[in-house]
Amino acid sequence: MKRILLILLPILIVGGILLLLSSFRQVEELTDQEKRAITRFHQELVRTEKQKTTGIFQKDDFEAISQWVESLHQDDHVHVFGIQFGEELDEAPESVFAQIDARLHKEIYVKDKVFQDFFLILNADLARAKETYQKRESHDILHDLSHFVFTDEVDNTKQWGNTETVQYMKEKGLQMIKNESK
């Protein structure tokens, strides 16, 4: 009897498992109404994703501002920490700030109502950096702008300044460069 149980028990266990698994194979068809709802949801999701990826800057403006902010950061690095830690500017910092300001006040950005808050916050951070230039506060603001805002890839450096631009970008999940297709 024990021998028969030893032979039948594994067969019964496997049979029970197969019986249990076969009950999961029942698939219900979606109704037409459910299929339409899923299609509408998918279309809305795609439309929302396209709206999210509109971008703020044109590529050439973004690259120019990125270079200027990084050069200001490097120059400020020299004045705050010493000549061995950065590179001095070839031109006056005021003219570099003026070039950045001119790009940010192009008609395409001034008339952009969607990102108006972003530009106000960015201009306020740049104004604070200009006022405190060659001091630690300005260096920290320029560091954050060059490493977290005007960069192709965010690195793992520490955020030193209390820049509202970075906080706003984190909250809104903004894309910086506009798609070329538009």
Any overview of this molecule?
The protein has 182 residues and is mainly alpha-helical. Helices cover 66% and strands 0% of the residues. The protein has helices at 2-22, 32-52, 59-81, 93-104, 107-110, 116-131, 136-149, 164-172. Helix 3 runs antiparallel to helix 4 and helix 6 runs antiparallel to helix 7 (136-149). The longest helix is centred in the middle third of the chain and has 23 residues, at 59-81. It is elongated. It starts with a helix and ends in a 10-residue tail after the last helix. It holds the Pfam family YwtC. InterPro entries: YwtC-like.
Total E-strand runs: 0
Number of helices: 8
Helix fraction?
A: 55-70%
How large a portion of the residues is in β-strands, by DSSP E? under 5%
Q: Nearest-angstrom radius of gyration?
A: 29 Å
Order of helices and strands: HHHHHHHH
Instruction: Kindly report the average pLDDT value.
Output: 80
Strand pairing plus helix content: what structural class? mainly alpha
What gross morphology would you assign? elongated
Runs in which pLDDT lies below 50 for 5 or more consecutive residues are none
What is the CA–CA distance across the termini?
81 Å
Biggest pleated sheet? none
InterPro entries: YwtC-like (IPR058890)
List keywords for this structure.
8 helices; 0% strand
Structure in a nutshell:
With 182 residues, this protein is an all-alpha fold. The protein has helices at residues 2-22, 32-52, 59-81, 93-104, 107-110, 116-131, 136-149, 164-172.
What are the SSEs and their pairings?
Blueprint: H1 2-22, H2 32-52, H3 59-81, H4 93-104, H5 107-110, H6 116-131, H7 136-149, H8 164-172
Pfam families: YwtC
